Amino acid sequence: MKKVRTRYAPSPTGFLHIGGARTALFSYLFAKHYNGDFIVRIEDTDVARNVEGGEKSQLDNLKWLGIIPDESPINPNNKYGKYRQSEKLERYLELVNKLLNENKAYKAYDTSEELLLQKKEQENRGIFSFRYDRNWLKISDEEKQRREINKQYSIRLALPENREYKWDDIVRGEISVNSNDIGDWVILKSDGYPTYNFAVVIDDYDMKISHVLRGEEHITNTPKQLAIYEAFGWEAPKFGHLTIITNMEGKKLSKRDNSVKQFIEDYKNEGYIPEAIFNFLTLLGWTSEDALEIMDHQTIIKKFDENRLSKSPSKFDIKKMEWFSKQYMKNLSNSTIISKLNSIKDEKWLNLFVDTYKQNATTFTELKENLKIYENIETQTEIKIENIDLIRIFKKHLLAHEFTIEGIQSAIDNTKVETNLSGKNLFLPIRVATTFKEHGPELAKSIYLFGKEIVEQRLNLWK
Ligand code: GLU
User: Fold this and answer.
1) Is the Cβ–Cβ distance between 390 and 419 less than 8 Å?
2) Residue 408 is part of which domain span?
3) Would you give the DSSP letter of residue 378?
4) Ligand 1 atom with the shortest distance to the CA of 212
5) Which of 161, 188, 215 is the last residue of a domain?
6) Choice from 11, 85, 170, 228 to test ligand 1 binding pocket (greatest atom count within 8 A of CB)
7) Tens place of pLDDT for every residue, the chain, 463 residues?
């Protein structure tokens, strides 16, 4: 088998999005499963849409997720050319000229008004996907010369008539499109920049890409790209088009929908565990044969099987993502978590804190928030307690025991017996009185972590 080489080719027009991250991830898993290379390169020829920091966000966030490319703009292998399209313009021009010389492409002198007219005229006939009708042939030679001087032309591919462009899609099986349904399309725009469909083929060819996995919105581009491979006599890679990701209502995720956090950066800033997101994203359109869900990086690579890529849309379920994050948090070692907390508390205390709080935490940020209640000690609370008697009874029992987790637990148990209260009626007032919080993990441990002095001071407030 030919060396597997896959790629992720974002445009730096925005930050790394869930959809992009999933495309990158599946391309990465595919390559790694077959001991191949995974490449990241940048499609930055749509200059007006590029955003400052777009490329860096893509690369940094992929790295944070653990998707490390073998080659990228910051780690190129020169034998495959440049990894940013803006640095390859000469290469594209050279190949455009080759097609021109072989009469496989031609200069089209239409103005945008003429094209618009053509489009309208087609729409009147009920054709809504525009097909260029070789209008330029109708333009007089004199006029062509005038436009040539003013560089008012684009270059279009001369498609063969009635040719079937077929491929065996990795996700969807055989797809076939007739060239008559495409029309000669622009490969070089009048501003001298190549179009996406042309440049992407050159890049995939130059980089010896063997398999292309990308979003289903690219299905209509694939026959156009196959026509370029054919024009040059190059072998095309295999293609697979991943299904869309939807929100919980089944609508395609839109970057403008603020109800779902869609950028990897958001998860990073909120202190999610990258390994958990990596694992979660893996299951957005893929399942393991044994239906396992929680899997580490190496297991996923080993089990990845392109034949199990889903043919139906995948729902982005934030609840499930949080569940994943919780499972990962529970399984992280205390020392790993402690290293993220930047606390000055001593090791023993921190270990107990982490043991107590990691059972139910989703993010590092949440843990840090919990840590704050022990680091910045508040001296009063606004929260009211109805049953002050209960607090007095608890205090009596607490003072009668040693200040240990077991001692605190016995004090709670004694209070239960004496007051005949249980559940929320027992725990909530004790929790509020000692921790100044209405929610938290195991009560005795939460109290113990404050230390004897603070707990007694607080109990004295309830009179
Ligand atoms: N820049 C394109 C995109 O972001 C890449 C498409 C492709 O993978 O061919 O959708």
Assistant:
1) yes
2) 388-459
3) -
4) 8
5) 188
6) 11
7) 789 999 999 999 888 999 999 999 999 999 999 999 999 999 998 888 888 889 999 999 999 999 999 999 999 999 999 999 999 999 999 999 999 999 999 999 988 888 898 889 889 988 888 888 887 777 888 888 888 888 889 999 999 999 999 999 999 999 999 999 999 999 999 999 999 999 999 999 999 999 999 999 999 999 999 999 999 999 999 999 999 999 988 888 887 777 788 899 999 999 999 999 999 999 999 999 999 999 999 999 999 999 999 999 999 999 999 999 999 999 999 999 999 999 999 999 999 999 999 999 999 999 999 999 999 999 999 999 999 999 999 999 999 999 999 999 999 999 999 999 999 999 999 999 999 999 999 999 999 999 999 999 999 998 8
Question: Does residue 125 lie in a domain region?
Answer: yes
> Residues 6 or more apart from 160 whose CB is under 8 A from it?
179, 227, 230
Q: Which of 444, 442, 367 is nearest to 398 (CA)?
A: 444
Pocket test for ligand 1, best of 85, 196, 225 (most atoms within 8 A of CB): 196
Q: How far is the CA of 20 from the centre of ligand 1 (A)?
A: 9
Q: Which of 146, 163, 188 is the last residue of a domain?
A: 188
Pocket-testing residue among 49, 205, 214, ligand 1, by greatest number of atoms within 8 A of Cβ: 214
The number of distinct structural domains making up the chain is 2
DSSP SS3 for 397: helix
| Count of C-beta atoms within a 10 Å radius of residue 276 | 24
Instruction: Report the CATH number at residue 432.
Output: 1.10.10.350
Amino acid at the residue 267: Y
CATH number at residue 170: 3.90.800.10
Q: What are phi and psi of 162, to 5 degrees?
A: 50, 45
Spacing, Cα 214 to ligand 1 middle (Å): 7
* CA of 227 relative to ligand 1 center, distance in Å: 18
Q: Is residue 99 part of a domain?
A: yes
Q: Which atom of ligand 1 is nearest to the CA of 9?
A: 5
Q: Classify residue 364: in a domain, yes or no.
A: no
Q: Residues lining ligand 1, judged by CB closer than 6 Å? A: 9-11, 43, 200, 214, 218
* Ligand 1 nearest-atom number relative to CA 8: 8
Residue 205 domain-assigned?
no
